[in-house]
């Protein structure tokens, strides 16, 4: 069965066509600059086997991007999909698991769009368009929040007045679940244990968003993000944890202009806000190294980023209790050995000991960079959210098809 | 030697007489409506009638915030008051009313040294990386926003006691202490010897661990959303978060920490059991974070008005901080420091007045 996976960004549409259950990529690519015209034209960068091609086409919205991707797939002979898997950032309290799409699902998705205003609306429109054009193609929506549905109520609840909590569905959702779940399964495989016996802390450190996940017996029990992706670690442009009273003060100072405050905290803070230079930690590290201590603001940016990360790591190692591994994944987690070194050094109290030489060599997974004497393994694992989505979609679609065949 | 101790707050204040390290006679509360000078004149007359006024060596006033310019207790003089008045915008709820009481003390007791004991003094050594939020320094500077602690007097006393115990055992090095100040709004600090490296509280008392009436750390987006969509303004949301949340929201108004963690309350289930689980989870995360900041934890010390509850909670937290099976640290040692804020302030006032 060929599963076409869509990962919908605010101005992009990534896709991969995978043969399942063999997990073999047939084709993939990205529709770039989707939306209003920009300095460069919209294009699809496509790959099929060893072939690469570029297709310049107007894509004013995600619906047209979808049509163009389907056309490119047809014309390049990469194969036709038998099912579609969509990445959806937020499932709210309505979706605790991944969902097979039917009219009721689409309606429910539209009702929760506001929970992730940047990501959910284009992905929801894509689901609707896909269903209209290909009504017989099974579609599965895979939620980043679903993996975190196992976070206990005592960890997910906010101690706010009950009527507000119930009316507004206020609870920690957690994010990056698809990635955390994928690398947890890979880690269990590397350690030679069953996925449901893994105790670990997963560090998804992207060049954009970042979160930590505490994993007990293979299940998420904590995540640094919250009701929204804002809290937790310092990220590229998100502030991470912030005294909520400060957010209210910013709102009052902005004359109640919530969009201004959301923009400040989500798009102009984090590494960008602290450094004043770049939203990418790699740029800040490189510039700080060039300046050799003469750039106090850059040094402080790194310190704040690493300090927050280290404290959350300690908190989650304590929560997990008997961690078998710390997992580093995504751009920063994999490609910056210095981040792993600075965060994991002097954590012997938790049973964590890094092999510094080995760590310095590793810039992509899979690799184990812990010292031989370390009870807690430090694993570098390349995340693969599209494959994780394809796996989840496969699990949901196959029973359905089996049912049809039996009928 | 006696000290009169004053703990002012926007809701009024507490006053008591401390003599030879214990409370002696006079103890009372003020409401917010009365004029400080008039209230203090009544106290002066009562002390005079008792014959205690002449033995007064100092008046100690607890101040919540003094900024980095006041790393220790100081006698109040005109210059000190001028410097503090310039900081009123940094603690607009507390500092103006606290200074009003200080001025009244100097007016009513002109011959007695008035010593200011700051909760913030202990945290003047907090590293910058811990103070900073992930926002543009210009925005943080304009709002004077940085992370700080609110129970410095308790932490200082707890860490001093930990150091004494450490040395009494002839242990080498500097103890890494998890200082758990258990007040209605608890606070955990990671302290190396006497130097704090991490603290659970934030720029305001709202952030950090949940309290008896306050929510503690929540996703800021939640409060922003409520302020915009739930028909409440920022001020109303702030009040909801500080006065109607925490244990009040989880269990009911009037719920206090002993109702959850008292010797007879540990088996309680239902709403109280859930609130205990939630709080314990947050406490554990704070201790784990502070342990990472310190590179390990040797001691877990409870202080604050509910310090005794550490006898129930302490062993549970310590067990979770035991990583010896993985070749890491053993469980930290436990210590309970029972005192009162008034006694801590009195001690500092008498020391500063003597110097």
User: How many strands appear in the DSSP assignment of chain A?
Assistant: 14
| CATH homologous superfamily annotation of the largest domain in chain B | ATPase, nucleotide binding domain
CATH architecture of the largest domain in chain B: 2-Layer Sandwich
- Large-scale geometry of chain A: globular
Structural class of chain B: alpha/beta
Rg of Cα set of chain A: 22 Å
Order of helices and strands of chain A: EEEEEHEEHHEHHHEEEHHHHHEHHHEEH
How would you classify the quaternary structure? heterodimer
Distance between the termini of chain A: 20 Å
Shape of chain B: globular
Query: SSE string of chain B, helix = H, strand = E?
Result: EEEHEEHHEHHHEEEHHHHHEHEH
What fraction of the residues of chain A are assigned to beta strands by DSSP? 15-25%
Helix content of chain B: 40-55%
- CATH names the topology of the largest domain in chain B as Nucleotidyltransferase, domain 5
Q: What is the topology, as strand order, of the major beta sheet of chain A?
A: 5-4-3-2-1-6-8-7
Low-confidence stretches of chain B: none
Sequence stretches where pLDDT stays below 50 over 5 or more residues of chain A: 402-407
CATH class of the largest domain in chain B: Alpha Beta
Report on the biggest sheet of chain B: 6 strands, mixed
| Integer average pLDDT of chain B | 93
Question: What do these coordinates show?
Answer:
The complex is a heterodimer of chains A (407) and B (355). Chain A is α/β, with parallel strands linked by helices and 407 residues long. Chain A is 41% helix and 19% strand. Chain A has helices at 62-76, 103-111, 120-133, 153-156, 162-168, 177-191, 244-253, 258-267, 270-275, 281-291, 296-320, 330-335, 337-344, 356-361, 385-406; strands at 2-8, 12-19, 24-32, 43-48, 51-56, 83-88, 99-100, 139-143, 200-205, 210-216, 219-223, 325-329, 367-368, 377-380. In chain A, the strands form two sheets. Chain A has an eight-stranded mixed beta sheet, sandwiched between helices. In chain A, strands 11-10-9-12-14-13 form a six-stranded mixed beta sheet, with helices on both faces. In chain A, helix 6 (177-191) crosses helix 15 (385-406), helix 10 crosses helix 11 and helix 11 packs across helix 13 (337-344). Chain B is of the alpha/beta class and 355 residues long. Chain B has two domains: 2-118, 2-Layer Sandwich (Nucleotidyltransferase, domain 5); 170-341, 2-Layer Sandwich (Nucleotidyltransferase, domain 5). A six-stranded mixed beta sheet of chain B has the order 3-2-1-4-6-5, with helices on both faces. The longest helix of chain B is centred in the last third of the chain and has 25 residues, at 270-294.
